[in-house]
Amino acid sequence: MSPTRTEVARMVDHTLLKPEATEQDVAALVAQARELGVYSVCVSPSMLPLTGTGEVKVATVCGFPSGAHHADVKAAEAARSVADGADEIDMVVNLSLATTGRYDDVRGEIAAVRAAAPAPVVLKVIIESAALGDDQVVAVCEAAEAAGADFVKTSTGFHPAGGASAHAVALMARTVGGRLGVKASGGIRTTEAALEMIAAGATRLGLSGTGAVLDGLPD
């Protein structure tokens, strides 16, 4: 059976990461998130702290969007975001480390962010799956798990290689085996695409056009 509108909404990080987004835009996002019944809002760290979120969780990004930041800078950014009220941190891995097989270093930078943002803060690791080969996807997911992450996430939505794919989600889900969550994000604009990601194994969705996706689902 297809999931209901309410069930999918509770999987959504309602996202606004456009560099030009204003405080007014973010306030509108929060209001819409509460109306739609989504799980969280995801905004840039400079927009924290947020007010008026109610039961909606607050997520932010770290090392975004390139991932090409020093590990200690990512850790400091994560710590500041937690101090500013973030419940969840979505960090971008260093793709240079991933594409050159330096998986111990990938694990090390994720561990640094994990130490700066300890549980119960939820740590998601953006692996930019469209820019990696299958073996690299597996290895980075394994590094994320070894470093104590809670989720692996497909994409920033900003990389020219593309966003989420059902193939990547399925591969990531098989690799983490239910021990971590899998967030599909980047280019998911239709109900059909969202359902495809869920069927592939996604347990969280990063959406900017959330209303349009939910409108195609039964109550």
Automatic annotation (TrEMBL):
Active site, UniProt feature: D90, K153, K183
Record-level GO cellular component terms: cytoplasm
Subcellular location: Cytoplasm
Entry's EC annotation: 4.1.2.4
Keywords: Cytoplasm, Lyase, Schiff base
BP terms from Gene Ontology: 2-deoxyribose 1-phosphate catabolic process; carbohydrate catabolic process; deoxyribonucleotide catabolic process
Pathway annotation: Carbohydrate degradation; 2-deoxy-D-ribose 1-phosphate degradation; D-glyceraldehyde 3-phosphate and acetaldehyde from 2-deoxy-alpha-D-ribose 1-phosphate: step 2/2
Catalytic activity, reaction form: 2-deoxy-D-ribose 5-phosphate = D-glyceraldehyde 3-phosphate + acetaldehyde
Gene Ontology terms, MF aspect: deoxyribose-phosphate aldolase activity
Presence of keyword RNA-binding: no
InterPro entries: Aldolase_TIM, DeoC, DeoC/FbaB/LacD_aldolase, DeoC_typeI
One Pfam family in the UniProt entry: DeoC
Keyword set includes Cell division: no
Stated role: Catalyzes a reversible aldol reaction between acetaldehyde and D-glyceraldehyde 3-phosphate to generate 2-deoxy-D-ribose 5-phosphate.
Family recorded in the similarity comment: Belongs to the DeoC/FbaB aldolase family. DeoC type 1 subfamily.
NCBIfam families listed in its UniProt record: deoC
Name of the protein: Deoxyribose-phosphate aldolase
Organism listed in the record: Georgenia muralis
Annotated gene: deoC
